[in-house]
Amino acid sequence: MLKMTSHTPQILVVDDNKEICNILKEFLEKADYRVHTAYSGEEALHIIENNVIDIVISDLRMPGIDGIQLIKHIKAFDPTIDVVMLTGYPSIDTAVESVKLGAYDYLTKPIDFRRLKVMLEKLLEQRALKKRISLLEKKFSGDYVFEGMVGQSLAMLNIFATIKHVAKYPISILITGETGTGKEMVARAIHNLSRRANKPFITVNCAGLVETLLESELFGHVKGAFTGALRDKPGLFEIADQGTIFLDEIGDMPLSLQSKLLRVLEHHEIQRVGDVKVKKVDVRVIAATNRDLKKMVEEGKYRKDLFYRLNVVHIHIPPLRERKEDIPILCQYFIKQLNQEIGKGIKGLDIQVSELFQQLPWDGNIRELKNVLERAYIMATGEHITLKDLPLEYRQRKLDKISFADLPVQTTLAEMEKKYIMKVLKLTSGNRSQAARILGVSRRSLYRKLKKYGLI
Question: Residue 341, Cβ neighbours under 10 Å: how many?
Answer without folding.
Answer: 10
